[in-house]
Design brief:
2 domains; Rossmann fold; six-stranded mixed sheet; alpha/beta; three-stranded antiparallel sheet; globular; binds magnesium ion; binds adenosine-5'-triphosphate
């Protein structure tokens, strides 16, 4: 069975402790969201899980057959156009060029980019367009595990919903697993099987884990609003996000 297992992980940058005693397991076909305040170590944790950073204390075991990553900043190659950027991973996997281009074009259209955009270079794209290219590039290779670092943060609400729905469709159809980082509690509630709240102070640690058992298809807007309202009343959430609600 494919899974990602994070056990007793601690991490420091130099003398600065960033993460302490992180433990969780992501199973095949599941979505775990990590939420928490800025600077709490979410991106660092994702980089450890995806082996961009080396684990020095604790253990991370990943038995997923394949994975891909959409970074917090889109990291597109400036000298390649939209389609060539999306096709990168496919070509790296030795996909035939014409097939790679065709798949890249299809996913670009699905993600709301237009034919006119295909030959644009990153410098001529809006922030939201860059994010869509980056997300498309990660999804087009059909990974078993997807690492997503705030992939929808630069999108307007309509587009965000559309891409969330594409993600949900892929999770259901391909049994995709996702480790998802977001600031957006509503997004986490809509997408996740489990939400991990990372508290920044004094060192990044897991303050609480919530499971959401109801099937993703049944989570309509009303469910998401109601659950979010409940979450925002939870003392640990208030504490972790340093919210001062009255
Ligand atoms: N390469 C690095 N060298 C030293 N410190 C770093 C490095 N990368 C991140 N940090 C520090 O690690 C801490 C956690 O950063 P990280 O990017 O993981 O936070 P985050 O939770 O993803 O924040 P955000 O929500 O703003 O993206 C911060 O204090 C940051 O300054
Ligand atoms: Mg981050």
């Amino acid at each position: 069975m494919e899974r990602l297992e994070v056990k007793n992980v601690n991490f420091s940058f130099g003398f600065k402790e960033i993460l302490e005693d992180i433990n969780f397991v992501l199973e095949k076909g599941k979505v775990i969201s990590i939420v928490g305040p800025s600077g709490g170590g979410k991106t660092t944790l994702l980089h450890l899980c995806s082996k961009i950073l080396r684990v020095e204390d604790g253990e991370i075991r990943n038995s997923f057959h394949s994975s891909s990553f959409a970074f917090q900043e889109p990291r597109l190659l400036p000298w390649k156009n939209v389609i060539d950027n999306i096709a990168l991973g496919l070509l790296a996997k030795k996909e035939r060029k014409d097939i790679a281009i065709k798949k890249a074009q299809e996913i670009a259209l699905k993600f709301g980019l237009e034919i006119d955009d295909f030959t644009k270079f990153p410098k001529d794209l809006s922030g939201g367009m860059k994010q869509r290219v980056s997300f498309a590039r990660a999804l087009v290779v059909n990974p078993s595990l997807l690492f997503l670092d705030e992939p929808f943060s630069a999108l307007d609400i309509g587009l965000k919903k559309e891409l969330q729905n594409i993600l949900i469709e892929t999770i259901n159809k391909e049994n995709l697993s996702v480790l998802f980082i977001t600031h957006d509690l509503m997004e986490a509630i809509k997408l996740s099987d489990e939400i991990i709240v990372l508290k920044a102070e004094p060192v990044g640690h897991i303050a609480k884990k919530f499971s959401i058992d109801i099937s993703r298809d049944k989570r309509d807007d009303e469910f998401v609003y109601n659950e979010t309202a409940k979450f925002l009343k939870d003392k640990i959430i208030i504490d972790s996000f340093e919210l001062e609600l009255r």
